[in-house]
## 1
Amino acid sequence: MTTLGPRRVHPAEILPWLALAALPWIAPDHVLLGSQIAILALFALSLDLLVGHAGLVSLGHAAFFGLGAYAAALLALHGWSEPLTGLAAGGLVAGLAAALVAPLVVRVHGLAQLMVTLGLGLMLHEAASRARVLTGGDDGLSGFDLSPVLGLFPFDLYGFTAYGYALAVLAAGFLFYTRLAASPFGYALRGLKQNPARMAALGTDGRRRLIQGFVVAAVLAGIAGALLAQTTQSVALESLSFHRSAEVLIVLCLGGTGGRYGGLVGALVYMAARDWLSALSPHYWTGWLGAAMMLTVLVVPGGLGGVARRLHGRLPRLHRATGTRVAAGGES
Amino acid sequence: MTAALASEGLSVSFGSLHAVSGVDLVLPAGARHALIGPNGAGKTTFVSLLTGALAPDRGRVRLHGEDITRASVPARVKRGLGRTFQVTSLFPEMTAFEAVALALAERDGLTWRCLRPLARRGRRDEAAEILGRLGALPQAGRPLGTLAYGQQRVMEIALALAGRPRVLLLDEPAAGVPAGESTRLFEVLETLPADLALLFIEHDMHLVRRFARTVTVMAGGAVLAEGSPAEVAADPAVREAYLGRRRA
């Protein structure tokens, strides 16, 4: 009788994924860029759980990305080279850290929340920079090897396995995100964003749900970080820097929040633009990138993913409008 | 028999203003009780004390004999105390169907589930049943933010009912609803389970006479009179403070 839940997955949505899967054959020179895009997209998806669903803001989300990256790298350096358990460890460490700080983060709102997350991120960055024994300080960690993925696909010099691996993990994260968005938990998070007082009147312990949402987002960010460490076989301090927190927020604004393609579209456009502009104008490319970003948010406030959604949503919207008239007519 | 909901000497002040002072109210199971009074009488503040949105300075609230004075809003809801808001307060981007299904999931304590769909069959049927009972099924697929005001008032009640409350507090359920529809709204409320205790704030005396079995009149934060609609209407103090002024 009626659709319930965020727009169902349309069969045609397999097409962009097929295109991504075909990248090594279409443009083998771009698989490294492709891996970076997949990792950034996963990271952006995790931030979208906070920003687009729970209505939380964060300028320190890279803390969890970096924790996941260091956890996976340290595990590999100490001889545990199986990639999937390394990913899980990255997610676990990030999730545990998030569980510690989440009560503090969800206590405050808006600007204060930005400051708390920013502060936590800066503190972690500083701590990692000092703890040279563990993190390698400014030199980071490198020189670790990973076993073949699933025991079948060894990592190669060209980055084909790395790309396939990153894409598969992104797809898994994407499916998880999609299911979560349609679940009672996803609705509860959006309910808390739209009207926390009403959620309390439904009996929801809002604080608890937000803490859970924060932890889930951190686990996903940790997995993205672990993925970066594994596919590049190195970790730099930059992985938990303020710059990375800001970058993923930009990516999400570009792609649009609250929709499952926002992170993917944002990461694709951002990385492609960065790649293209830096080749075009090696000295001034960040300036051009800034201009392109401003133009995007001014011209398409809902983000590029929102445009795609509107195009995709045209037909159902017309149906809805017709339904409205019928309902109104029926009542009068 | 223990009352479904009872307040004992409930009081709260804001600075020097005694918004609610020493209010005793007993709501037995199956009550159809109206709370009336002129603007500023403290009715909504009193309801906020009952729901836990405000903490009292003095007094107690008991739900089925259990002291819930210190319980949080969600904890009271879980114990069976539902409410609607005076100013419509919904989820603007969710459809009517989704919002009711969310309320059902919360009632069943399942909003931690992140892999199963909200729209499971049992929940879907129950949401449709609630919307159907309130005549809101035609709006099921529309975002709540796009509904007409009267329809949003109906959705307030739908969301409260989804929690399967044993006590339901309705803060001006028919406020802003056209006259014909408000009668229909109350007729819907009449069909609610007989053992549900209903307390509603209402300004329309015709509706109060027709649907309330007992009435409490508040003025200046205190109880002025209590009794059947006829008794209350005949009370000189009430006529003075409320009805008289309204009719003047």
## 2
Amino acid sequence: MIKAEGLRKHYGDVEAVKGISFEISKGSVVGLLGPNGAGKTTTIRLLTTFLPPTAGTASIAGFDIRKQAAEVRRNIGYLPETPPLYPEMRVDEYITFVAKLKGVARAELSAAVEKAITRCSLVEVAHKLCSQLSKGYKQRVGLAQAIVHEPPLIILDEPTSGLDPAQIIEIRRLISELKDKHTVVLSTHILSEVAENCSELIIIADGSIALSGTMQELTAEKSLEQLFLQAVFKRKSPDSSPEQSAQVRQ
Amino acid sequence: MRNILTIAAREIRGSFVTPLAYVVMAGFLLLSGFFFFTLLQQFNAVLLQAAMMPDLHPSLNEWVVTPYFQTLQIVLIFLLPVMTMRSLAEEKSSGTYELLATSPISTVELVFGKFAGAAVVVAIMLGLSFVFPGTLIAVADPEAAPIYVGFFGLLLFAWAFTALGVAVSSFTKSQAVAGIVGLVLFLLFFVIDAPAAKAGEGVAEVLRYLAPSAQCEMFMKGVISSTSLVYFLSLIALGLFMSVRVLEAQRWR
């Protein structure tokens, strides 16, 4: 479903993603794990064609992100870190708007919108303005816009950040329902999130892949926490101070 | 085409469910009503004077309609930056731009949709202000053609600045910056022919051609001049072209 080859992204002099390659097969749920600032969001923005890579490329569902951006975009549903809502639109209006943008055929429009709203348990707030919703509901609306056109690949950037435990459980339930039909890539820095949802794991640290593999293989000997810390520390220079290490551990 | 309509329709609805468009329209109508009233008052005074001089035949077009349209140009220069400052800047600051930029629509479609939406809102605003010269046609006997054509010229003028406003808004994330930069640039552009009096012949001619108010003059005489039509359409094209290029360049930074 995704095949990345030497993806690289510079912002001016800063190299945010340092040539990463990976492959994700159809039907898997992949956790993209890493400390804050590791390059997760940049990687996602490259895959979703929001930003062009400085070097390297990737293909999504067989389409090249550099040359076939429109096809790539049709095949992904994307929830950015902040859900991209228009505060003055009603939830159903907004989902309809996104469905049109994503190219859902006119005849299927209302059915697709209804389905997305039902799947994300938004029926009772469908007529409310996006600005009136709680954070948990906003996130669910964000999820609904990502799935309304039934894309084969769904990319979620920190879908549970800033939510309360009940809302987190609700979002997790939604994600676990998605995995029957879609390939899901989920970025997070919360370990338990990966443990609960994902079949595969990619740990990004400092712009490179520190570790990747299936959850079963990787967690056979070590706990997820150990793996994460090990992966993150391996990237650090040997003389990194204890304070820095402590910051990473938090 | 469907994508352009989708974007434009959202833009129009968005404008009318938030207060900004209403505030700007109310302000525009208040100002245009005030100026129209003042011009009519002046015209009455002129009529009284003319009564004593049988050779003078002051016309409603010359004393009311033309200055009314000229004043509206200035009002538009101040209000259009407020109308267009949100356009792309808000999408970028609120994060919705990320949705648009990862949807299967092109930058051209996005910019055209944004402009089309704003152009409709501006047309509605101007259309409402037509009630004043419209009253003249209904109750007095001015020459009607210069009113209709002049109004069409004013609409082109407003659309040109709308396109330029969208372009200014594409540069930044901040609505305030877009608004202020837009206002300064619009004002400068509006008086671009001011140095023409002292400039050399060739330069003066270019400056006079570039001045948007001068391009409205033929319309206000009731003539649809192809030069002016091309002038305003080129400005619209320039604004849209710049917006597209700026948005695409920003991806590569």
